[in-house]
Amino acid sequence: MEISSTRVLIVDDSESDAELVVRRLRRNGNNIVQQRVDTAAALDAALKQQRWDIIIADFQMPQFNALEALTICRRHDPELPFVVVSGTIGEATAVALMKAGANDYLMKDNLARLAPVVERELAEAQTRRTRRLEEERRQFANRVLRLLNESVDRVDVISGLLDMCKEFSGMEAVGIRLRCGEDYPYYVSTGFANDFIVRGEHLTLSVDDRLVRDENNRPVLRCLCGLVIRANPPVEHPGFTPVGSFWTNGAGEWLARSDDNNIWRHFAQGCGREKFESIALIPLRAGRDIIGLLHLSDTRPDRLSLDQVQFLEDIGAGIGIALQRLRTGEELRHARDEAEAANRAKSEFLATISHEIRTPLNGIVGFCSLLTDDLKTLGMGENKELNEHLRIINQCGSTLEGIINDVLQISSIESGHFLLSRESFDPGRLLHDSLAAFEFRAKEKNIRLSLTLGAMPPQVLGESRYLKQICFNLIGNAIKFTAAGQVELRAEFEDNIITATISDTGIGIPTALLDKVTQPFYQADQSSRRQYGGTGLGLAIVSRILEKLDGKLTISSREGFGTSISFTFPVKVTGIDDNFAPPHLHSFRGMNILAVEDDPVCMCYLKKILGPTGSNFYGAESFSAMKSICTDGMVPEVVLLDLALPDADGFQCLAWLQKHLPDGVRYIAQTAHVLGDCPRKCEEAGFDFFLAKPYSKNALYDLIYPQ
User: Fold this and answer.
1) N or C: which end of the chain has fewer CB within 10 A?
2) What is the mean pLDDT of residues 493-518?
């Protein structure tokens, strides 16, 4: 086997013996690069200075021996071949040398064996190095892959990659440059001087801090990194691989072979100032794009190999794809966070709008009802004009409340807030009452209502309020879009499923638009919004409620002939609820009722509707006023708490009252904040009931009356 450019370090105090060893090796056609040392310090310095292929050592020298030399050698490189050549050596000494890690020994009078021994040891050392390198690369690749697969934080990934690359390569300085806009700053680095990094951060800038661009308007990095990142190396220039990496083991020698002044300027801008000799610039690719590079540098020569650079190129391709994926993930998370923030802002806005509209609406609807009662008391109940005016006010208020409720509910459902409160109810009675509620509107339009009920259980357990809301929306829509004819409700019960169908003889829906009518704010004929009114949310709300409850919605229609909408509603059959009976007539005489309300109109409304009941009414406009009333000795039986007060919220008021009042007091949250999980929060805090503004006096009476 021919050994070319073998680097031999000879440890011998005899110059002539060393020359004899070199002649023997060269006689076999070997190109020998050699150096002789004869002290421990000189040996240590030579091993630090450069890489050697083999050490040939005399056994005994004036200042130290082969065993000491072997110890120094193994400290630098455990696998470096070490052969002893001696004039005299005993068997025991030879055994001690082999146990200490020497690869072989031979006598000076038998140097004919030297060349074969060296060739054999170099071959075996190369095999050991190859195996070790393969194992190191396998472990390195697995660590990189594990880091890329397990971590989702790009900063952690890049920092981890930097540490791994430095440990694997053994280079003094390692950095990762990544694209940031139109520049490629060092994202992370170690081993580079601070001023080197600062210069690297500004290599795309001119003296007036403006981007330097080429003829294609691309930013120019005036360094070797720029040539690699732009995939624009000089044609057939030494040092650049086919993949586009740059590497050299001796920058000075590399420059001497280059007659390109532009290359010299690129090198002098960066690595040349730091006296780097071994340099590798590995592009990080994501598909066809170069998103950055891996930079390895060392002031020592001969720290790299083409095989090592090619391995890093393969690793760099995977790193580039992974970093781009992580960056995309970060951008998606950022977009998601922004969307969630916008959704929270929307929810907060809707909550505020809900409160600000519902609070005065409570006064409008409430006082309209009181005026109607007052007319009867004053003997003016037959005044048709006044009654009509009040009916219009009440109808407008109810319409406004319905619009607000629809908008808030669709927003609440789509933001993930859907509260369940299963209760026992009579399904036949609920369906009958739902249809009966529209008798007046149907008579106005000369529409006949009909109800066909199959066998229904007397009591079921389920979401009665949602079933009622579905019926109201569908029956209301049927009447709205029917000029004359009939609206029919048919329902049957089987296997814990209520199946109901609402059919009308109205305008119908074009077949092509049937899939769109359950979208929010959509009406089949957009001009019908002006003619028939409404928000276009009814079917959207029904559809989403049924999705949440595992029900189904089916729509069939024929334009000009009418529409039929069927739905299934899951419930559970239960026994008859003995308590399922309407309350007796309300009687609050002598009952202490405390209302904590900061809105003067709402407070006035409460006084008006509770004053005639014979109760003892106490009003507090703030948290501090409430505490004063209670500390003066009054013990309420019922407390009406608004959730928004000038000096506290209703939950703080409730906590104080629960601490200072005896058990048995009933607490009612009466609020215009109805979005999201507000009812659930009130229940968890300890409120007995939740009353949403606006509310009627009968709704309030039903909660106050002790049952």
Assistant:
1) C
2) 88
